[in-house]
Design brief:
The chain is an alpha+beta fold and 417 residues long. Helices cover 22% and strands 32% of the residues. It has 10 helices and 21 strands. The radius of gyration is 23 Å and the shape is globular.
C-alpha cells in the first residue's frame, strides 16, 4: 500500500473531517459544532493521508501558547484530530503522520507538542509523556458543608447570559493563564468553544447558564470588577425523597480565594439540587480544603495532557526552576534523534540555559520522561522509582526533583482541544 501525505486543502476539509468523525464512532456533529471546528482548523498545520482519492488518515495541530513553570508563555503545537481509517490500520499510516508532523513542528520553531490522548498507549512511542491530570468531582451537597474564607460575603453574584458576558469572562481567564502551568492562551475564535450548547452538550440538562462574581461599589456591572465566573447546567431529577437535581459545572475561574469560594457556595446552594458534578478540575482544587467531608466528594483522577519536547534545549531553557540547577542530562530520543545526546541545564528562578555538552551525565532518561516532568506535575524521583530515570551521579535525582522539575501549583489544562 502506498499512501500520500499532504497538507490539508480547504476543498478537502469535509472529506477529511468525515473520516475523522467516522473513526470516533460516526455520530455526526451538530451543524454549529462542525462549523466551529472548520473555522478553527489551521490548514497549513493539518495533514491528510490519502490512498488514491480516499482519505485514510487525519492529523492537525493548533498554534498555541502554553504556560510553563515560572509563568512564561511558550509556543506549542496542540496536536489534535488524529485518526486512521479502520481499513488502513497497522500499515504505518499513523507513524508516517507523526513523523511528518513532528518534522513540521520542528521547522516551525515550536519547542513543544501537546495532546490529549484518546488511547494513551499510542503516543508514548512517539515521545509523549503524561504531564497533567484532571480531577473529577461528584459532591453530595445534601451532606457536605462548605467553609468559606473571609471576604466571600463581599463578593456579589449575578446571573448573566453567557454570550453577553463572554468578553469579561475571557478577561478573567486570560489573567489566570500565566498563573498555572499547562494553561493555554485562547486565540481568536476559541472563546466560542466555551459557549457550545447543543443537545449533545446538555445531555438532558438545561441550556448553559452563567453567574459572574463582582466586587466594587457599582451595581449590575457598573463600577464593578468581574473577579470570577461559573458556567454550568442543571439537570432536574426527582426521587422518592424529593428533588435530586444535579449541577453540572462546565468551567469556573476566579481571581482570588474569596471569589472562588463564593462561586462554589452558590453551586452548592442551588434549589432542587442534591449534587454538583465537575469533570475537569485541577488536582489541587482548593475546594478540597473547604469541604466538611472529602469522602463524599467522589474524587476521580484521570490522565489528561501529554507533552513532547520537540527541541530539548529550547524547551528546557524556556522555563524557570525553583532552586538553582546545574545538571547534565543524557537524553534518548529515537523518534526525533536531533534531541539525543547530552545537555547541560543551568538555571534558577530568574531564567535558564540548556546547551549541548560533552561533560559526564548526571541523569539518563528518554524524551518521554522529560515531557512527563516538564510542567512540574510529575516528580523525577517517582519516574526514577519506576526505573524510567537512571541516576548516574549519586544525589543528582534528589537534587533535580526538588527544584528542577517542580511547580508551586499543579499543572492543569482547563479545556480540551
Amino acid at each position: 500500500m502506498t499512501t500520500e501525505l499532504r497538507a490539508l486543502g480547504k476543498e478537502d476539509w469535509n472529506v477529511w473531517y468525515d473520516n475523522l468523525i467516522r473513526a470516533f464512532g460516526g455520530i455526526p456533529e451538530p451543524a454549529e459544532e462542525r462549523e466551529l471546528s472548520q473555522s478553527l482548523t489551521e490548514y497549513d498545520r493539518s495533514i491528510g493521508a490519502w490512498d488514491g482519492a480516499q482519505c485514510v488518515g487525519t492529523a492537525g495541530a493548533f498554534d498555541f501558547r502554553l504556560t510553563v513553570p515560572g509563568g512564561a508563555s511558550v509556543p506549542a503545537a496542540g496536536v489534535t484530530m488524529v485518526s486512521v481509517a479502520a481499513t488502513h490500520r497497522r500499515r504505518g499510516v499513523l507513524t508516517s503522520m507523526m513523523r511528518r508532523q513532528l518534522d513540521d513542528i520542528s521547522s516551525w520553531g515550536q519547542p513543544l507538542a501537546v495532546l490529549i490522548a484518546s488511547e494513551p498507549d499510542i503516543y508514548g512511542r512517539f515521545g509523549y509523556g503524561l504531564a497533567t491530570h484532571r480531577l473529577g468531582i461528584e459532591i453530595d451537597t445534601t451532606r457536605v458543608r462548605l467553609s468559606v474564607p473571609p471576604g466571600a460575603e463581599d463578593v456579589r453574584l449575578r446571573y448573566a447570559a453567557p454570550a453577553e458576558v463572554l468578553d469579561v469572562c475571557e478577561a478573567v481567564y486570560a489573567r489566570r493563564v500565566p498563573e498555572r502551568p499547562g494553561m493555554v492562551a485562547r486565540g481568536p475564535g476559541w472563546e466560542r468553544m466555551e459557549l457550545l450548547d447543543t443537545e449533545r452538550h446538555r445531555d438532558g440538562a438545561s441550556p448553559l447558564q452563567c453567574v459572574v462574581a463582582e466586587r466594587g461599589d457599582g451595581g449590575e456591572g457598573e463600577g464593578s470588577d468581574v473577579v470570577g465566573y461559573a458556567r454550568f447546567r442543571v439537570k432536574p431529577q426527582w426521587g422518592s425523597g424529593g428533588a435530586e437535581g444535579v449541577v453540572v459545572l462546565e468551567s469556573l475561574e476566579a481571581l482570588d480565594a474569596a471569589a472562588h469560594a463564593a462561586l462554589w457556595r452558590f453551586l452548592f446552594d442551588l434549589d432542587l439540587t442534591a449534587s454538583v458534578v465537575a469533570h475537569r478540575r485541577p488536582v489541587d482544587e482548593p475546594l478540597l480544603h473547604m469541604v466538611s467531608d472529602v469522602r463524599r466528594c467522589g474524587l476521580r483522577v484521570q490522565d489528561d495532557m501529554y507533552v513532547r519536547l520537540v527541541d530539548v534545549g529550547a524547551a528546557l531553557g524556556a522555563r524557570t526552576y525553583q532552586a538553582p540547577v546545574d545538571v547534565v542530562l543524557e537524553v534518548e530520543d529515537t523518534f526525533c534523534p536531533w534531541n539525543s545526546g547530552r545537555w547541560r541545564l543551568t538555571g534558577d528562578a530568574k531564567g535558564a540555559r540548556c546547551e549541548r555538552t560533552g561533560d559526564a551525565a548526571d541523569l539518563a532518561l528518554s524524551v518521554r520522561e522529560l515531557g512527563a516532568a516538564y510542567l512540574g506535575g510529575v516528580s523525577l524521583a517517582s519516574l526514577g522509582a519506576a526505573g524510567r530515570v537512571r541516576e548516574l551521579r549519586q544525589g543528582a535525582l534528589a537534587e533535580a526533583s526538588v527544584g528542577f522539575f517542580s511547580s508551586t501549583v499543579a499543572p492543569w489544562l482547563p479545556h480540551g482541544f
